[in-house]
Design brief:
The protein is an alpha+beta fold. The chain has 14 helices and 23 strands. Strand 2 (16-24), helix 1 (28-37) and strand 3 form a beta-alpha-beta unit.
Length: 538
């Protein structure tokens, strides 16, 4: 049983800080939302690492928005719904494709410099997009450029305060209303931060898997604390594995952007054979889940741990100009993209599910919002369309702030809240070891291809770790592991419940998509059974 709170506390005895808006996380969702809210509110941004450390920083491909005259929101909508495999919210997608271009213009106004071609914004194409609509920056460093520009704006604003190296332990609620958060500072001191609105912008779940393109901070904290607070969590079985991460001895699982395939790169097995024609008519530009599974099939057939990404037919100047970060990183490990085929394999990349929100980004808990990868707005459905995530963050970040402006100040009585589970202080097994074991369980039993037997074994392995919630936790690594365990259980339980294959969720024992029985979302809520909610996609 997962408890309501991670630690014991007495709210009255804790130091208290008041603010208007609490923003948890410092990726594009957190930064943009803080800037928007900071126009007329006091904002406290809390990040467990440094301001610049987030998933956004490592986003290479770009941001999807309708810019060119031969494109239209209708085309973008169609592509998004197709990728989402029947589980997108049509209304949420309409909002994304129509409001996305305005968000891009705002990013430019805030200092983001996107690449240009002959004085016009340069656009590229990625998998499952019918048109070139991906804006990028510094070739393949789009995320870093956006974070750079937005961070500079945040630092300039007097009414935005940033707490680096502070860990948000839990969301504090009173009678179904979010009143703030419990925070632990770098010295171990705990603080109650009270706010009129709390926004989870805490990113995804990549670190639940041994092989991931995500940075160390992506430990599912926001979704786990929202679940403990009673928020509805949706679609956790849908986790996207990026088809092409660097797979080379001594190198990290560095993301090789889908934009490389968008610019003409092809996939080859270890025999040098191009193989995507066996799996999909769109070849290398097929939806990510199809490409990732095709790669795994080729790896198994050829008894290899990787396949090759080949863009050597393009000119060296083009490759170096378009993908400077990828070229430089590969060079560190003796790989030259202009002449070498790059060894790649799939890795955990993006979570489609998360905290269920309405079209204003608000959860079922009043005054608790979610934005970015931690949220489930309905845009992505069962499979995210490439580069829609950055657009989603700015579009719904703006909507969240508009909703917050409608809220009256929090009228909270300030009554005492004491949490005492009689947790015991026990020696904790090395967190590195526990974390690695969890990651191996998720890769082995709840990875790219699943079945009832493997998922049941994975669930059994994960449940053996539940006693950690009975222990007194003190360190950041312990809190992270508790959150990772929570979300690993949510993913595995949802994957076991969905007896079909759809989008990023593939069951080898139920290999077909089943629209008759399974065209619905799975909702998980603490102390409730998993329930299905019919999709509104048409």
């Amino acid at each position: 049983m997962i408890p309501r709170y991670l630690v014991d506390f007495d709210l009255e005895s804790l130091p208290k800080v008041k603010t208007d808006v609490i923003v948890i996380g410092s990726g594009i969702a957190g930064l943009f939302t803080a800037i928007k809210a900071g126009k007329d509110r006091q904002v406290l941004m809390i990040t467990k690492n440094a301001l610049l450390e987030s998933n956004t920083r490592y986003a290479q491909g770009g941001i999807a928005a309708v810019i060119s005259e031969d494109d239209s929101p209708a085309f973008h909508r169609q592509d998004t719904l197709l990728a989402g495999a029947g589980l997108c919210s049509s209304e949420a997608v309409d909002i994304l494709v129509n409001e996305g271009p305005l968000g891009v213009k705002e990013l430019i106004r805030l200092g983001t410099t996107f690449d240009e071609d002959n004085g016009e914004l340069a656009l590229t194409q990625e998998g499952a997009h019918s048109h070139r609509r991906i804006l990028h920056a510094n070739g393949d460093a789009t995320g870093f450029e956006i974070v750079r520009a937005l961070s500079e704006q945040v630092i300039k604003k007097d009414n935005i305060e940033v707490w680096d190296n502070h860990f948000v332990l839990d969301i504090i609620t009173d009678e179904g209303v979010c009143i703030g958060v419990l925070v632990q500072g770098p010295g171990g001191k705990r603080i109650f931060v009270q706010g009129d609105a709390t926004i989870l912008c805490s990113g995804g779940t990549g670190q639940l898997y041994r092989y991931t393109t995500n940075p160390e901070v992506a430990t599912a904290d926001g979704v786990a604390m929202a679940y403990r607070a009673g928020a509805k969590i949706r679609d956790m079985e849908f986790l996207q594995f990026h088809p092409t991460s660097l797979c080379y001895p001594g190198a990290p699982r560095f993301l090789i952007s889908e934009a490389v395939r968008g610019e003409g790169a092809v996939l080859r097995n270890i025999k040098g054979e191009r193989f995507m024609s066996k799996y999909h008519e769109m070849l290398e530009l097929a939806p990510r889940d199809i490409v990732a599974r095709a790669i795994v099939s080729e790896m198994e057939e050829t008894k290899s741990t990787f396949i090759y990404l080949d863009i050597t037919h393009e000119t060296p100047d083009m490759i170096k100009h378009r993908f400077p970060t990828i070229v430089e990183t590969c060079m560190v490990y003796g790989l030259d993209m202009t002449t070498d085929w790059i060894p790649v394999a799939p890795a955990a990349h993006y979570m489609m599910g998360g905290v269920q929100t309405d079209l204003s980004g608000e959860s079922n808990i009043s005054r608790l919002f979610a934005c970015g990868e931690a949220s489930s707005t309905g845009v992505h459905g069962a499979n995210r369309l490439a580069s829609n995530s950055l657009s989603e963050a700015i579009v719904f970040g703006r909507r969240i702030v508009n909703r917050i402006r409608e809220l009256p100040p929090l009228n909270w009585s300030g009554r005492s809240l004491v949490v005492d589970y009689n947790r015991v202080d026990v020696p904790m097994q090395a967190m590195i070891e526990k974390r690695l074991k969890l990651q191996k369980v998720m890769v082995r039993y709840a990875g790219l291809r699943r079945d009832e037997e493997s998922l049941s074994k994975g669930l059994e392995e994960l449940r053996r770790q539940l006693p950690i919630f009975q222990s007194a936790l003190f360190k950041k690594e312990e809190f992270e592991f508790a959150n990772m365990l929570t979300c690993s259980l949510l993913i595995t339980q949802a994957a076991l419940a969905r007896k079909e294959s759809r989008g990023a969720h593939y069951r080898s024992d139920y290999p077909e998509r089943d629209d008759l029985f399974w065209r619905k979302h799975l909702l998980q809520q603490r102390e409730h059974e998993i329930v299905g909610e019919v999709s509104d996609d048409v």
